[in-house]
Amino acid sequence: MAELERHDNRLGIWGWLGGGRWGVERYAYILHRLTGLGILLYFLMHIVVTSLRARGIYLWVEGGFFHRPIFKLGEFLVFAAFAYHALNGVRLVLVELGFAVGRPIDPVYPYKTSLNVQRPLLIAMMILAAIFLAAGGYEFLGLAK
Amino acid sequence: MRETKYWTWHMAAGVVIFFLLGLHMLIMHLGGTTHLFAPFGGEAVSKVNSVFRDGRLFFTVTYILLLGVALYHGLYGLRTILFELTLKPIVEKLVTFVFVVLGLGLFGLGTWAAIVVHAIAKTGARG
Ligand code: HEM
Question: Is any Cβ of chain A less than 8 angstroms from the Cβ of B70?
Answer without folding.
Answer: yes
